[in-house]
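A quick word before the example. In earlier lectures we treated sequence and structure as two separate objects. From today on, think of them as two lines of the same record. Here is Lipoprotein written that way.
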Amino acid sequence: MKKILLIMLSIMFVVLSCKSAANPLDSKRTGKFVSEKTVSADSYLVVEVTSDGGFKLYYSSDTIGNPITDGTVNTVTGNDMRGKDPNYNFQTGVMAGSLQFISDNLLKMTVTFNDGSAFFKDVLCYKK
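And the structure line, produced from the sequence above:
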């Protein structure tokens, strides 16, 4: 019985410690992508892909993508990214979701905030 328990614990440890390697966003994807429609009251969702392989996610009051004054900017680093171009997944302590680059000028975003404050599914964002 002890051997079986030890084997099961060993297997659980191996499975839990395995994690896929980080895969930052391709550097050709940099730019600011803004939702065409409002996602929350009168705010637009902005995904700003950075040159370090991650992105910033925030709300904008306009379709240009200017951050709302005193608004929260959520940062996802390249180490938080999984997948390969054009499909990526991400998870941080604040949010989790997926990005799909439909074209060089269009991405589809699904994101859930861990505190339950918001959930956005299949939001189309266009490059500005």
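Notice the following. The chain has one domain: 22-127. We will return to this example when we discuss secondary structure assignment.
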